[in-house]
Amino acid sequence: MLSADPKDPESLLNAIRAYSARGWHPRIVVPLNDWTVDSANTVNRVLGLGGLDAATVTKARNKHAMKQAFLAAGVQTPRSHLVQSEEELHAAVEAIGLPVIIKPYDFGGSGGVVLATTREEAVAGLAESKAVVEQYESAFNILGDKYLVEQFVDSEDEISVEVLCGAGRAEVLAVTEKYLSPRPWFAEVAHLVPSHRTGDPAVADLAVRACAALGIDRGLAHVEIKFAADGTAWVIEVAARPGGDGIMDQVERAYSLNPYRLHIGSYLGSDLLDVVAGAVPAKTSAIAFLKAAPGRIQDVIDGKPLPPEVRSINISAKRGDVSQAAKNWSAREGLIELEWDELFSEKTWLPVTMAKELSDQIFVTGETVEE
């Protein structure tokens, strides 16, 4: 184990060189989340180990550059404008039309993502997005100096697609059903694998083309897609790393394949695309996040019998904590993992309803606390 800052290439290189002096040499550095995609691949290039191209990393981390790459490749994505000031915000809203999504151009986890239906809400949304960036910029090494104003795809129908990429070829490993918090925010409250859209060739083609547009040629990529009311599929974002939020654990349970083995093996040069192409889900697995009612948590009632579908439960909140609106990943009080022997042929809301029922049983909240 190296003692280094995984977000800082120089810190990593110094630690690696210290070990190299003792005869230990890395084969590859593999990023597992957004915050290490740049640093890991910078180290790989400096040491001549391979990794993603620098331009690909930029397009995967800079959402404005990402959108431009999608448009150039003919990948359907919502229109957007890059802004810094309130004046530019108003111009973007005028060009795109309300409602719009406002988000930092280099952050993730639904942090600072806000829906605005009026110009007043747009101004407030930009201020809220900036406040979130200010809170997390140092911890996640983000610039947060620019923001995207994006066309809103009005739909609750959203999936994520895990794609194993190779040079000139890619294969879809899994399609995940996504569940989001109430508007105006878009926190992910549950994920279910496999989605009923698994096996849809149009979905697979769109996800693969989105990865190719960014130049991702190794490892797993995480593609987020929304479907409009008329069925049109829109690529929202692509991350050049495996899906987070426990999705990989659900993929492993459903498919009996370890996604991290595939991701790391790809970085090491192994061709595992045929393994992915032959993967078939045998069960349904889901993760859902516990959410207490807004207010101060007065009691946490644990130890009651759980439904048979629950495979694990983790309660992170404690007495005295304050439960706030589900704005992003940070406003959670725990999680449950669920499993069914059947595969669902249409969208099911079971993960969300079960998480709510358990949350209502577990958490006793009192007075409302001002945010």
- Fraction in helix: 25-40%
- Structural class call reads alpha+beta
Question: How much of the sequence is in beta strands?
Answer: 15-25%
Quaternary organisation: single chain
Rg estimate, integer Å: 21 Å
Shape: globular
Instruction: State the low-pLDDT regions, or none.
Output: none
> Helix segment count?
11
In round numbers, the mean pLDDT is 94
Order of helices and strands: HHHHEHEEHEEEEHEEHHHEEEEEHE
Query: Tell me about the biggest sheet?
Result: 8 strands, antiparallel
Number of strands: 15
- Strand order, sheet with most strands: 9-8-5-6-7-10-14-12
**Spatial separation of the terminal alpha carbons:** 39 Å
3D architecture notes:
With 371 residues, the chain is of the alpha+beta class. Helices cover 34% and strands 25% of the residues. It contains 11 helices and 15 strands. The protein has helices at residues 9-20, 34-46, 54-61, 63-73, 86-96, 119-140, 201-214, 247-255, 259-267, 273-277, 350-362; strands at residues 80-83, 100-104, 114-116, 147-151, 158-166, 169-180, 188-193, 219-227, 233-239, 284-290, 295-300, 310-315, 322-323, 334-340, 363-365. The strands form 3 sheets. Strands 9-8-5-6-7-10-14-12 form an 8-stranded antiparallel beta sheet, sandwiched between helices. Strands 1-4-2-3 form a 4-stranded antiparallel beta sheet, sandwiched between helices. A hairpin with a 7-residue loop joins strand 6 (169-180) and strand 7 (188-193). The radius of gyration is 21 Å and the shape is globular. The mean pLDDT is 94.
